[in-house]
Specification:
The chain has about 400 residues and is of the alpha+beta class. About 30% of the residues lie in helices and about 40% in strands. Strands 1-2-3-4-5-6-7-8-9-10-11-12-13-14 form a 14-stranded antiparallel barrel.
Length: about 400
């Protein structure tokens, strides 16, 4: 009898195992790669993107995705390669220019970032985030007027929030204290100042200050030497003056001054002032100056200020307290940044009360009123000058007139 040679049919399970696995579609594989990137698995995401590019070479979406992952891993050369290839293949793809701008910004190449964000804005002129991004890059280049214009446009398009307000505040020139910040690209500044005051009778007063200041991302610190000639006496002092960035929109000024001889300067003096941005260009501060004369003097201050366009206006109220006496003073300051940057401006102040301007920590004088006009200009990026004139009068005393000249250098 012949032997049967037909094999029995395979079971369904065996047949399924024998079939090759179905190849995922592009959409499925791309979705998986994006999910890996967004779930914090960048290396697996890169492997998935590599596999996609092996099957679909030059795909713009895949190049964009892989470039973003490289940028997040700070592999900026690889990120730029992928994103540049994507931009060449699809020059009107806005997301590519956004990612390329971010890559340049994160790798400290703000000039290239500005170019990329400019392409993005041309493609999406109503995107507030694009103007904010370019504003940040312009600020890194020290092009603050252009940065402020971008942020103004972003606000008009609906940009808001704490981070946005903090950026706007950081771009405002800190008019109450220009030493708090310095133009981008410089880390040192020095100044030499001299003032002469005609008090009506007796010899003129004169004061000199030399300062050198170092700037970091966290703030700045200066060493100063001061000299004063008044009432026929000479005196000298030295000081440390620092600014520190605090939380969002806040910074502080701390100062210590020592006058060993204490003939004209207080033996010890200090100041602490806290500044806080309130949003929409508003800023407030509170301060305490302590002057260690034979009778201690405290000068408590509070101010409110507003930045609007190229203008800064500040109103400061002070209480001057010492043993057996008390005084008050008000000062209104208006500063015009007519050149559109934080370096060049014209300023006018008007004050009244018993305190004129104690911010120098040299003791000050009681006055019933006065004012000043000042012009600061940087003639080159490194060199600038300050010229000022002041006038003061007090009941029962001669009027006082003064002039001030300062020379600035930064590097």
């Amino acid at each position: 009898m012949p032997v049967a040679t037909q094999l029995p049919p395979s079971s369904p399970a065996v047949s399924a195992l024998a079939q090759p696995a179905a190849t995922p579609s592009f959409d499925d594989a791309y979705a998986r790669a994006r999910a890996l990137a967004n779930d914090g698995q960048p290396e697996l995401a890169l492997a998935a993107y590599d596999a996609l590019l092996a099957r679909w070479p030059g795909n713009v979406d895949v190049l964009l995705g892989r470039g973003i992952v490289h940028a997040r891993l700070e592999r900026f050369q690889e990120a730029e390669r992928d994103l540049r290839a994507a931009a060449a293949a699809a020059p009107t793809y806005a997301d590519v220019w956004s990612a390329l701008g971010n890559t340049y910004a994160w790798s400290d190449r703000p000039e290239q970032a500005v170019d990329a964000y400019t392409r993005l804005i041309a493609l999406q002129p109503d995107d507030a985030a694009a103007y904010v991004a370019r504003g940040r890059a312009l600020r890194a280049l020290g092009r603050n007027p252009e940065a402020r214009a971008d942020l103004d446009q972003a606000r008009a398009l609906g940009a808001s929030g704490d981070a946005f307000d903090a950026l706007v505040a950081a771009l405002q020139p800190r008019a109450g204290n220009p030493d708090a910040t310095i133009a981008a690209g410089y880390t040192w500044a020095a100044s030499l100042s001299s003032s002469w005051t005609d008090i009506g009778t007796g010899p003129r007063w004169n004061d000199q200050t030399a300062s050198i200041r170092h700037y970091t991302k966290g703030g700045s610190l200066a060493f100063e030497t001061l000299r004063a000639h008044r009432f026929g006496l000479h005196d000298y002092a030295w000081a440390l003056d620092g600014y520190a960035n605090l939380w969002s929109g806040a910074y502080a000024n701390l100062r210590y001054q020592r006058g060993a001889a204490a003939r004209l300067f207080p033996a010890n003096a200090g100041r602490a002032e806290l500044y806080q941005s309130l949003g929409n260009g508003w800023e407030s501060s509170v301060s305490d100056d302590v002057l260690g004369f034979a009778s201690r003097v405290n000068i408590y201050g509070v101010s409110i200020a507003k930045y609007t366009g190229d203008w800064y206006v500040q109103l400061r109220h002070q209480n001057i307290v010492s043993a057996g006496s008390h005084g008050t003073g008000e000062r209104l300051l208006a500063r015009w940044y007519y050149a559109g940057d934080a370096d060049t401006y014209a300023e006018v102040t008007v004050n009244s009360g018993r305190s004129d301007d104690p911010l120098s920590l040299v003791g000050g004088q009681s006055r019933s009123g006065g004012g000043s006009a000042t012009w600061v200009r940087y003639w080159t990026p490194q060199w600038g000058t300050r010229v000022g004139a002041s006038f003061a009068r007090a009941r029962g005393a001669d009027n006082q007139r003064g002039v001030t000249f300062s020379l600035y250098c930064r590097w």
